[in-house]
Each structure stands twice: as structure tokens, then as C-alpha cells.
UniProtKB/TrEMBL annotation:
Gene3D superfamilies: Glucose Permease (Domain IIA). The keyword Transmembrane helix applies. The chain crosses the membrane at residues 29-52, 72-94. PANTHER family: PTS SYSTEM GLUCOSE-SPECIFIC EIIA COMPONENT. GO terms for molecular function: kinase activity. Keywords: Kinase, Membrane, Phosphotransferase system, Sugar transport, Transferase, Transmembrane, Transmembrane helix, Transport. Residues 1-111 form the PTS EIIC type-1 domain. Pfam families: PTS_EIIA_1. This is PTS system beta-glucoside-specific transporter subunits IIABC. It is found in: Cytoplasm. InterPro entries: Dup_hybrid_motif, PTS_EIIA_1_perm, PTS_EIIA_component, PTS_EIIC_1.
Length: 266
């Protein structure tokens, strides 16, 4: 899992590494933030600039080349990327060393019925339901992060799809996770690559750990501004603990309103 997340991460798709590995373990996430901050400082000191709109991840490297030719800013970018990777690894080994020293306890068999219960998940958005497999983000489309649906929103408000507890509020406001009362773990990711907006056009109305009921307003976002910035608004709604269920299937297609059933988990 770590190798696949690293590979996708260097190509600019960071969600598997963030949501699947670092954030749930907290300390690796803090380590990566520290390493990234130091790497950003190196680029600032070196005078690294972006001269054109390009790709993300390693594909963004050519955009750091000055029209006058390769300069110190470009080399600063390369050094910063190397520092971020190496320092992130070292800090993780130091900060999370206790987990590395622990003996591995063999997993015990657990029945699905002992952990989660069947439930129906409502729509957190007003919009049009689409098949998850048809969206542009291959990580979500492949089902690697869990099964579910995608919704193209027509109103810039994200609501709680059912009762539960907020388990994740991303600092940029573009993603919210929650654990339902019945045990389903839901991730709602507004738009594609919208983490790059760094919180612009998003406003969160809840905090991690908050208890919410179905229909509670979670996030407001400016649809027109996000579109104008060049980002897709299609929003994956996935059950990240899909493996704990026998089936996780879509129940709706076409237009939906907030609260209408979209996913059935059994």
C-alpha cells in the first residue's frame, strides 16, 4: 500500500497517501507537513518560480525552468523535492518509532456483523449522480479507496448524508470524512484536484469530532469560482471501509436532492 501511494504521489495524486496512510496515523502526517514546509523554505530561498501552467507532481518540474535558461531556482526545486522525500521518511521513523518496535499481533477473524450494520446513505448534495468508474481521477474511479458514487453538484452546499461523527475535516475544506452511527466510514471529496486551491472558495462549518445528524450543513463552496479556476466539480462519495461489507452499491442515478438514498451498504 505504501509503495503504490508513493508512486501515485510523485505523479501528483496524493489522496491515497494522505487519506490511506499518513492522516489516519497522525504522526506521519505531521512529519510530512514539517518536511514540506522546510522544502518550501528552500525553494523560497533559492528563488524558485513557476513560469507556466503545467502538470502536477514530477510533471511540474519543467515549469520551473526560466525562459532565460536553467538557473538556481530550478536547482532549488530539485533539492527541495529530494529534501521533502528524505526528511519526511527520517522524521516519520523518528516520530513514529514506537510503532516500528512493536511486535505484530496476528489478526483475529472478525465477523462483518460484529463491526458494521447495514444502512442506506443519503445524498450530501443537490446534483446529478454519476458512476464512480466514469470520473477522471483514476484512484477514485478504480475503487482503490472504496466503492460509492460521484455527484456533479448544482448547489454549493455539502450536508451530512446520515447521522454520525466527523472523523476528518481537511484544512483546505475540500474534503470531509465521517463515521456513521452504524459504522460506515464515508469520504466526501468536493471536486477533482481541488486541494490545489488551498482553501479558496471553500468554507467549513464543522470540526473534527463533531456529532452531526442527517442534513447538517458541513461545507459551502463557490461553484462558479471553482469552475472558473479550471477545476472539475464532480464529487466522489465513497465508503472507505468497503472491505468490511458484503456489498456497497449505488441506489440512484440522474438528479438527486439532499437526503435521497444513493448508496446501500450491507
Amino acid at each position: 500500500m505504501g509503495i503504490s501511494a508513493f508512486i501515485s504521489g510523485i505523479f501528483g495524486v496524493t489522496e491515497p497517501a494522505i487519506y490511506g496512510i499518513t492522516l489516519p496515523r497522525k504522526k506521519p502526517f505531521i512529519a510530512s507537513c514539517i518536511a514540506s514546509a522546510i522544502a518550501g523554505g528552500i525553494m523560497g530561498f533559492a528563488g524558485t518560480k513557476t513560469y507556466m501552467v503545467g502538470g502536477i507532481g514530477i510533471f511540474s518540474i519543467p515549469s520551473k525552468i526560466s525562459p532565460a535558461g536553467i538557473d538556481g531556482g530550478f536547482y532549488g526545486c530539485l533539492i527541495a523535492m529530494a529534501v521533502a522525500i528524505v526528511l519526511g521518511l527520517v522524521l516519520t521513523l523518528i516520530m513514529d518509532k514506537s510503532h516500528l518496535d512493536e511486535d505484530v499481533t496476528p489478526a483475529t477473524q472478525t465477523h462483518v456483523s460484529d463491526v458494521v450494520k447495514a444502512e442506506t446513505i443519503g445524498s450530501p448534495l443537490v446534483g446529478t449522480v454519476k458512476e464512480l468508474s466514469g470520473i477522471s481521477d483514476e484512484v477514485f474511479a478504480s475503487g482503490a479507496m472504496g466503492n460509492g458514487v460521484a455527484i456533479l453538484p448544482t448547489d454549493g452546499k455539502l450536508y451530512a448524508p446520515t447521522d454520525g461523527e466527523i472523523s476528518l475535516v481537511f484544512p483546505t475544506g475540500h474534503a470531509v470524512g465521517m463515521k456513521t452511527t452504524a459504522g460506515a466510514e464515508i469520504l466526501m471529496h468536493i471536486g477533482m484536484d481541488t486541494v490545489q486551491l488551498d482553501g479558496q472558495f471553500f468554507e467549513t462549518h464543522i470540526e473534527k469530532g463533531a456529532r452531526v445528524t442527517k442534513g447538517t450543513l458541513l461545507v459551502t463552496f463557490d461553484i462558479e469560482q471553482i469552475k472558473a479556476a479550471g477545476y472539475e466539480l464532480v464529487t466522489p462519495i465513497i465508503v472507505t471501509n468497503t472491505s468490511e461489507y458484503a456489498t456497497v452499491k449505488a441506489m440512484a442515478d440522474g438528479d438527486v436532492k439532499v437526503g435521497e438514498a444513493i448508496i446501500d451498504v450491507v
